[in-house]
Each structure stands twice: as structure tokens, then as C-alpha cells.
Known about the structure:
Elements: H1 6-15, H2 41-61, H3 71-92, H4 97-103, H5 106-123, E1 147-148, E2 154-155, H6 164-167, H7 182-187, H8 210-219, H9 225-238, H10 242-246, H11 250-257, H12 264-280, H13 288-291, H14 299-310, H15 319-329, H16 338-353, H17 363-369, H18 372-384, H19 405-417, H20 422-437, H21 453-471, H22 477-487, E3 499-511, E4 518-524, E5 535-536, E6 539-544, H23 555-559, H24 571-582, H25 588-591, E7 596-597, E8 603-606, E9 610-620, E10 630-632, E11 638-642, H26 644-650, H27 654-664
Amino acid sequence: MRIVSFVHFAALTARHPIAHSHKFLTIRRPLQRQLSYNSHPLQMASSSVKAEAEPRKRSSNSNNTSNSPSRAEKKQKSGASSDIELLQSWIKHDNHTYHVDTFLTASQAYQIRTRLVSWYRANRRQLPWRGDPGPYDGSTVGYSKGKKKKGGKKDDGSNDGKDIRSFFGGASKVKRQKTTNESEEEKKEESETPSSMEVKEESNTVEFSAYGVWVSEIMLQQTRVEAVIKYWIKWMDSFPTVHSLANATPEEVNAHWAGLGFYRRARLLHAGAKRVVDEYGGIVPNTVDELMKVEGIGRYTASAIASIAYGVEVPVVDGNVCRVLSRLTGIANHIKAPVMKDDLGWELAEKIVKARSSSASTKADDDNLGTPGEVNQALMELGATYCSPAGSGIDANDPLVEFYVSTRLGRAIGHVTNSKDGATRDRIEELVAKGAFGTDKNKSRCRLCELSGASNAFYSISDRIAADLSTSPNVKLEAVSAIAGHACLPISPPKKAKREEVLAVAVISSRIVDDDQLRWLMVKRPSEGLLAGQWEFPNVEVWTSAKADGKKVNKDKAKSKAAIEVPIIDPTKRSKALDSFISGILDEPIAKKKRKQIKDAPITHIFSHVCHTMWIEYNHLDEDIALNKRWKLENGREAGWMSEDDMRDVGITSGVHKILAKVKIM
Length: 666
């Protein structure tokens, strides 16, 4: 057993106070991740170990009795020494320029750019907003993690022979199409969707346009690519130009958006189209500054439209790009950190987007650079595939496999924590402990890395290596360590528990006198806030975790990822709250009619930041009532009686669908 230095033990137990024994790096969790598109990375690593072991075995059986190290062993020792030097400089660095000056020099940025463009052109996904013909399938499900076979068994991909090209559908090189001028074209004439859908549109390819890119970027915000494809095609069929969208009604827009969630995006896209028509003649602006004047377009979307549609040399930074940058330059922070997604992350990405060769360029060199749009899309594509959270960092098909600092750091930490060289180990552990406890109070800090980020990442990687070695003892330490380093960078973001709200919902139906059609009482939500402007059944909030027992929840508890306990509200209290609300919608005698409480389990509907627990009360009004289709309430909201056809026309949310389905099977 290796003796652990007191400094390291103290730092380790400070970070992991629970269950640390006298053994170095207590093992907690097995490796259950699919990290390669071909097979499990540890299986790949194991195969490479066997292959490398053969020549060594033959050498040991030969007549050569020399004990001198082989050339391969010398090279490995030299590489380990270089990685350990890198690890020391990484732990000690105190300025964000370290990441650029060390890992993203002009020469490195140029090589990264050309590798990305070459890979992207050969393998990119076929997507309708890129002007590609169908069929389309943007799903990454089953490639970054193990696919499931029939019978529920997980397929690690080791026997099916598939590689990344099968995911990309063997996409051939598609020439970038000229941007369409929407005005000229006109003159000529809460994920709530299926997880994977293939849309065949070979004969109806939509021409590439800045407007199409704009729509796709808005839809892709917090929604998976494969979920967006069908919605985008339907949208462009109904609203093929900025003018046609600007002239649409809010109900038409909502109906086309229904199911995508985050409905505020649709309202802003609609408002933005009106501005583009009024102020830019229906032509989407071609600069970031002008684009950001349009409703719903921030820096990210403006940069995406400008670079992809118009070739403007600006970076585009999202979570996928932040992950790639973190692994390329060793940033110990999470991808949602403001300094990454809103500040210095853009400077790093710009180094790649604007990279040039230091030598005199030729036409071939310029072509290899690709367009800014290609570079940005390649970075995002890489972050969604090989450099996804489950990426291994050692896959030979990964275009940037040679550039990841994350894997080098992992290998260095593996060497240090499993080395017999006590002096090196103690020196590194002392540096890490100083970073963890902040003993160097006069030391400045890197703006890109989280406070104590390098030290925390060191401990996470060491734990991961120990755990993985225990489950895969035949795999080479170097491979296990590289994968662990890649898996632990960027670091995991802090998780918050979702806000909980308990709602009492009234579902009231009746029939209209003149056509005997069943209709449902609906109210329109306020124009601001969650699901703004959407139609729903009348409901009231009877409890929220934000103000439990009349007090705000403790901040530390709110930041915890532990689930918040949701109480069962007394049914009488729920009914009284609904009576009061409905009295402001219907005449009081009708509003006070008794409703049947659906007493089995409530309906739960989850949004990105809040969870609704909905208790349903139902009543059908037997009297024939002359029903007004719609009317204004005193609080400025609208109410109305809607048939199911009416609901489809205005585009109801999936939460309303759930409630309606429950009531109809009673």
C-alpha cells in the first residue's frame, strides 16, 4: 500500500469528507459510460494493450538478455515527464492568458481550424436549414452512449461495426448555397416531441437563406436537433419568407410552434419578423450589431446568422463549443459559467475562427480554412458528437484527438497518483492542496477557471482513474487516465432543484346551443412570464416552494439538487381557491356549481425550471347556454369556450393535452 502524504489526505478528505478510508482514493463508482462511436473506450484501450503486449512478449522470450529500456519505453517515459511538467504549470497558472498562450497559439489555432473544416465537410449531418436534400436525421442518441437492443440489453457498439460515418448518414460534401433575398423571393410569388424522427423531403428541399438560418437557430435554443427538423420544415412551408411570417396571426404562429415548448421564442420570432419587414424591407440584416436590434436575437443568434448566412468572421459560442474549448485548453470551469458563455469563451473561439497560416497562403490553403460558418458549425457539431459529455478523447476518428489538453492532464494525474516516485507525487499533491485550501492568499487567479477549479478537477480525475482501474484491471493506465481527464473537463455545473408549484385546475365543459358542439372553458395566460399568451384551463396556484409556509426557501436549500417535498393541499382549500377565480370568469351561479374532484394521482408537468403538480376538478354544464366564443376579463385577460378544433388552431400546450386526455377517459 502506498503511503499518502498528510497534505494530500487532508485536502482529499476536505473535499470528500464522507467515507475516505486510509486507502488512497476510495473507489465509489463503476464506469458505465459509452465513450466511443465504435465501442466502449476501455474495450478499445484493452485491445490496444493486448496488441502492444505481443512484441514485448516475443522480446522477453528471445536470447536478448539486456535490461536496457526499449525505444518505446524511453518515449513513454519522456511523454510522461512532459505531461507532468504540463500538470504542474496548469495547477500553478494564475492568469487566463495561460490557456491561449500555451494551448491556442496562432499555429495551433490554424491546425485546429483546418482539421475541423476537413472533418466537417466530409461528415456533417444533412439538415434542411443547410439547404440539404432529405432524408434528415439529426439524432445523436445511441452513439455517445450505448444503444439499447431489443429486450432491453445495452449495446456498446463493439460488434456492429458502425462508426461515426453511419451517424452522419455518409453525408456527401454539399456546396454552400447562395443566400436568398427574402424580398425578391416574395416578389416571385417542455422537449415534448418524439426523441427521434426521420423526415423524407427529397423533392421539397428548402433553399438556403438567412431567414431559414434565423428560424432554425431560434428553434434549436434548448431543443434537440432531431426534434426541430419536422417543425422547421412545417414552419417554412407555411411561412416561407419574413413577410409571410410578419403577416401571420399570433394564433397561427402558436399553432405551428405547439409542442416545441418555450413559447416566448415564437412570440419574439414573430415580433422580429415584423421589425425586419418594417425597418429592413424584409431582408434579414447581415451584421451582428443590426441583427441584435431585432426582437429575440442576442449575441449568439446574431453571430450564428451572420457567420453561417453571410460569412461574417465572428465566433459562435454555445455549451457544445464551451466544452470543446475547455478540453482543448484545460479550462477548469463549467460550460454555463458567465465567463465562458458570455465573455472570454468568445475570445478563445475567435482565435480559431480567425486563424490563418503564418506562411504565405495559396488558394488551396484558403479553401482548407473554410468559411466562418463552416468553422462555427464544425465546433458545434464536434461538441455534439465526439466531444459530447460522453466523448472519450482518444478516438482516432476525432479530428482534434491530438489537441486535447484534457487527455494529457488525465495521463499526468494517472502517472502521479500511481507512481513510485514519492517526491514527485508529494510535490504535486502539495500544489493541489494549496489550490484547494487557498493558502496562497497573495496569488492572483485565472478568470477562466473556477476558484480552486484545477484542484477540484485533479481530485475528480484521480477518483475517476481509481474507480475505472478497479472495474477494468486489464486496461492500460494511460488510456484509463486520458479518458478520465476528458470526462472531468469541463467540470460539472452546480445543480438547482426545480421550483415546485401546486395548481388547482378547473375543467368545465358545455355545449353551444346552435351546433351542439362540446366546448371547454379556457383562459389566456398573461402576456409575460411562463407560457405567456397561451390558452389553458382555469387554474390557481395553491402552493409554491418559492414561498413555503409564507417564507422564502433558504437559498442553500434552493441551490441543492435534492428534490423538494411537495405537500398535498386540502381539497376544500383547492376548491375554494378555484371558486373565487372562476367567479371572475362566469356568472356566479354557474361558477359555484359543484365540480367533481379527480382524486387519484395528480398530473405532473415539468418545465426547465419549474414543476407543476396539477389537481383536477371537472364539471359538465347540462344546461343549454348561449356561449360567447371569447370575452375580456376585468384583469385584461381573455376567456372563451373552445372546441378541440379551436384548441388545435390556437396551439395548446402539452400540459393542456395531458389534462384533457385525463378528463376524457373518466
